[in-house]
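Dear H.,

Thanks for agreeing to be a second pair of eyes. The structure we're designing against is below in token form, covering all 523 positions.
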């Protein structure tokens, strides 16, 4: 408030951290609403009765049950919407890095931070060793600033590179006397498929002698005796509510109030070969070809497939890009209602078709900007907004800005992703994690859940709301679900998107108990 009183909205680019706030300026008859640069905190807007309404909870400001078909189309195509839409017609996100100024009936929207303004700009330092040292310093600051009070801060620890880096940095700073200790760590363990990552998470726990609580083998739609959480928007993993509640319960029971999360790093540290697309745009065809040849040889993959993906497809019209990828087949699942698919142009909503060069940069800048736009859709909400605060060290803005300015080879090298993070964490992160490739996930458990909760899902799909709305053909989705259980579905992500959307609609409309799906269990 003091910064705003002195500098007005000019203070916003100087504010670090996670926030969504509204200020009413009585003297000027003006309202200012702002959201943090990376969209960690939600902020929504709508108009009601001729007035602008802004709030941090969508369900509190939505004006009814009219749904936005553009959002639904995006969600069924990829599990998220990247254009600021919400499930409710007339309600939208205040975009990350943006503020609103409302005076009378006039509402102005202004962006104070964007990814594109940093990508490709001169980086300092540029020498590898100095860049790694600077990254490590900023990452230490990012962790230090997000640890609150002795024992109050916990961290997720999956065994992956990102969460392990956060925990290891926090523990090493504590060993150096620079930080209070973490209260503990929480590991979600899934013994199906490749989901059991304890051989990696244990390396961190043993190296730093940390408390580690484990949550075992929770599945989607698992009943915990309570109604599913009222969550502002659907998410592919929304039906994992029991697992999420259990994680939060462990932390709260131990007196914790903050959970550190490894999210955000994938958005800008993984790297992408779209930089070769930009080399071609700049007229440097030999350099682009040489880079792809180098990666193809090291990764033992098809050089021509890389050429097609990065030097041909990005320059074709949308219709030709779709034909190249899918031939005569349609990218739209067969169980989507054809009229809705045509009306919403569902076939063109897949991410690889929408991606276009940024006005402020090339394909790499556009790819990074899109990654940041969709990031908020995958942040943990629901139970994680009840009594705990999720914090994301990788989204510390000075760290993000420094990384965005670095050349692509600082991130992606043959057979190595997140190169600069791996180098910066030498001596802090156990070598078994620092040098690992790949990561386990819940895919096997998600497929298993479709069989375990078959009675519940069958009850949901007898006369689903998404069918009543005219978005899908229920008999087709039921057939696709049967295929998915058998491991033969070509549209598994879309099936999970449809099921999570139906679950969310039942819960938010108050019809979950009406269908008796809350009391059904598998035999």
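And this is the sequence the design step returned. I haven't edited it by hand at all.
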């Amino acid at each position: 408030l003091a910064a705003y009183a002195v500098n007005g909205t000019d203070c916003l680019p100087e504010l670090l951290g996670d926030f969504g706030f509204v200020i009413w300026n009585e003297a000027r008859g003006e309202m200012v609403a702002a959201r943090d640069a990376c969209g960690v905190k939600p902020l929504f807007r709508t108009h009601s009765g001729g007035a602008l309404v802004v709030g941090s909870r969508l369900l509190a400001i939505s004006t009814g049950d009219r749904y936005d078909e553009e959002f639904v189309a995006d969600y069924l195509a990829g599990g998220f919407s990247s254009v600021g839409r919400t499930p409710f017609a007339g309600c939208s996100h205040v975009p990350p890095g943006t503020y609103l100024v409302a005076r009378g009936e006039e509402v102005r929207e202004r962006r104070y931070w964007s990814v594109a303004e940093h990508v490709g700009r001169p980086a300092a330092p540029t020498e590898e060793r100095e860049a790694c040292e600077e990254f490590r310093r900023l990452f230490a600051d990012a962790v230090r600033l997000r640890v609150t009070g002795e024992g109050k801060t916990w961290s997720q620890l999956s065994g992956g590179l990102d969460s392990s880096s956060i925990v290891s940095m926090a523990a090493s700073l504590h060993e150096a006397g620079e930080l209070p200790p973490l209260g503990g760590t929480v590991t979600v363990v899934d013994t199906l498929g490749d989901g059991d990552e304890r051989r990696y998470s244990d390396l961190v726990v043993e190296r730093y002698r940390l408390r580690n609580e484990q949550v075992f083998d929770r599945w989607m739609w698992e009943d915990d005796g309570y109604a599913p959480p009222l969550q502002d928007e659907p998410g592919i993993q929304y039906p994992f509510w029991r697992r999420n509640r259990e994680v939060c319960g462990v932390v709260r029971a131990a007196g914790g109030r903050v959970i550190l999360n490894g999210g955000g790093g994938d958005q800008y540290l993984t790297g992408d070969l779209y930089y070769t697309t930009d080399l071609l745009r700049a007229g440097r065809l030999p350099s682009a070809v040489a880079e792809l040849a180098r990666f193809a040889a090291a990764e033992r993959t098809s050089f021509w497939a890389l050429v097609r993906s990065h030097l041909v497809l990005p320059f074709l019209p949308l219709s030709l890009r779709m034909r190249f990828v899918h031939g005569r087949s349609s990218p739209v699942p067969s169980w989507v209602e054809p009229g809705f698919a045509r009306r919403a142009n569902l076939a063109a909503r897949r991410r690889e078709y929408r991606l276009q060069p940024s006005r402020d940069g090339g394909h790499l800048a556009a790819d990074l900007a899109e990654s940041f736009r969709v990031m908020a859709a995958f942040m943990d909400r629901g139970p994680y907004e009840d009594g705990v605060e999720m914090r994301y060290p990788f989204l510390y803005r000075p760290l993000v800005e420094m990384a965005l300015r670095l050349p692509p080879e600082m991130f992606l090298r043959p057979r190595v992703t997140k190169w600069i993070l791996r180098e910066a964490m030498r001596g802090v992160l156990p070598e078994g994690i620092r040098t690992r490739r790949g990561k386990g996930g819940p895919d096997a458990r998600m497929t298993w859940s479709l069989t375990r909760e078959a009675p519940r899902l069958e009850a949901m799909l007898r006369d689903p709301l998404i069918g009543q709305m005219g978005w899908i053909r229920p008999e087709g989705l039921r057939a696709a679900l049967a295929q998915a259980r058998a491991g033969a579905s070509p549209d598994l992500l879309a099936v999970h998107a449809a099921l999570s959307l139906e679950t969310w609609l039942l819960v938010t409309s108050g019809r979950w108990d009406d269908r008796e799906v809350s009391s059904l269990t598998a035999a």
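Two observations from my side: Residues 320 and 327 are 9 Å apart (CA to CA). The mean pLDDT is 91.

Warmly,
E.
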